[in-house]
Amino acid sequence: SAKAEGKATSQIFHAQMDVDYHYRQRLKGDLRQAIATGGLSLAFQPLLDISTRKVVSCEALARWDHPELGPVPPSTFIPLAEEIGVISDITEWVIAQAALQCSQWPGQVGVAVNVSARDFRAIDLQAVVETALARTGLGAERLEIEVTETAVIEERDIAINVLSGLAARGVGIALDDFGTGYSSLSYLSALPFSKLKIDRSFVADIAEKPRALRLLTNVARLGRDLDLVVVAEGVETEAQLNAMVDNTTIQQVQGYLFSRPLPQRDIAELISRLNAGALAQTKRRIG
Ligand code: C2E
Ligand code: MG
Ligand code: MG
Ligand code: MG
Q1: From the CB of 236, is ligand 1 less than 6 Å away?
Q2: Quick check: 171 and 144 in contact, CB under 8 A?
Q3: Predicted ipTM?
Q4: Per residue in 241-260, pLDDT tens?
Q5: Which ligand 1 atom sits nearest the alpha carbon of residue 146?
Q6: 46 CB within 6 A, ligand 1
Q7: Count of other CB atoms within 10 angstroms of residue 186
Q8: 179 Cβ partners below 8 Å, 6+ apart?
Q9: Which of 162, 214, 221, 247 has a CA-to-CA distance to 32 between 20 and 30 Å?
Q10: Separation of alpha carbons 109 and 45, rounded Å
């Protein structure tokens, strides 16, 4: 009967919820442990100048390889870390580690780190950044803080305060995942952004859909009009890249077409290889 069926479905549903609940409880405990024992690592993904194809910076992305469950994606463990109040331990560690790695990369390649809305209240981000710069000798202009629309809107006043301090110090401030959060645009002029990272959902269809390309073109124009460096995230195909080169004012690109996020031991070599390749191409064009 429908009633029996309903009951069975509900039992399965609740059994699944139970699994999810226990899974999440376990992950929370294990995440605390991983943070305390150096169980997290960083991957780095390059951002390239669209015209020279040189690596200008790399984004640091947190990784958690669980000893029994394997890799847990940041889309799972970052929200858990926020929930149990340990996100700022991750942020502090990421900033220190990213600055250290960056100080060892060839040339003037910079590094970008992601911060969470919670960090604005939980820690003194300016002090954390100063410490990381002092310890590594990295110039402030080589560090960039990525923040989402949601974070700056949730913590508007304190975000303006903290990010203005960092910007005055010369640290870059990037608005991440642009276009996916609130569509109130007023914060774009209220906050000291230097870069706009257009979310990959604006890139996905541009090679097939003229309207998608026109939307991206106009979002990029908005960023340029505000004197922001404009980046496209999630570039996966040559066709997408070509459409951007031909139609938009996008200055930097990031995505699987160029490189997946790589473990830190591989990133210096990738930078050298990509930047040597970019140079060789430039020389060929000249010669
Ligand atoms: P995000 O900051 O927007 O980082 C870019 C994400 O897009 C990364 O996912 C990256 O692997 C992925 N991506 C890059 N290129 C492509 C592409 O061509 N196609 C597709 N489909 N995806 C691409 P990841 O590493 O899984 O990180 C997801 C999100 O987790 C990040 O989004 C960021 O919001 C958050 N996150 C990662 N590390 C940290 C961290 O240390 N702190 C904080 N607060 N959040 C972090
Ligand atoms: Mg980011
Ligand atoms: Mg992003
Ligand atoms: Mg994103």
Answers
A1: yes
A2: yes
A3: 0.98
A4: 999 999 999 999 999 999 99
A5: 2
A6: no
A7: 10
A8: 198, 199, 201, 202, 219
A9: 162
A10: 12
